[in-house]
Amino acid sequence: MVPEPARWPERETSITDTFTITTLDSLDEAAREAAAVILEAAFNDPERYGRARILSQLQPAGLPFYRRFFIALRAGEVVGVGGVKAADWASDSHILYLSAVAEHSRGQGVARALISARIAWVMETFGSGRLLVSTARSRRFARLGFRLMGKREAGGRRLMLLEF
């Protein structure tokens, strides 16, 4: 049985001194296109992360196999994007995925803010479960309470888990 979310806000906003984190509005084609450009540039793998796949992933999906994206905006420009989705293979499991920051905005806390916003949204919405991420930045996620899973690296990335 799929748990009913505790809260399912349409838009959630977090403001810092220089940028705003909000959910990607499915009707905002310009923001969706800008997010796709950032993801394409960051992943630079047309076979695996081509434009059509990225654009389809940027569309929200409802329960039980939800998918939601958050964007970072600075002066109306999309400077970062990050997704979270239900793991369709495990109950009460969620995945942080397709995260990237525009090159000119890196090192300014955008990635940290996007990660924090997604973690907070999952915890507030579902109450309990587990959150997974595949990352090359294991220290960043360890500081947030994630722990390493297994001993193997795949392409310089490690699987990490946060139980909540």
UniProtKB/TrEMBL annotation:
MF annotations from Gene Ontology: acyltransferase activity, transferring groups other than amino-acyl groups
Signal peptide: none
Positions of the N-acetyltransferase domain: 22-164
Keyword set, alphabetical order: Transferase
Gene3D superfamilies linked to this entry: 3.40.630.30
Name of this protein: GNAT family N-acetyltransferase
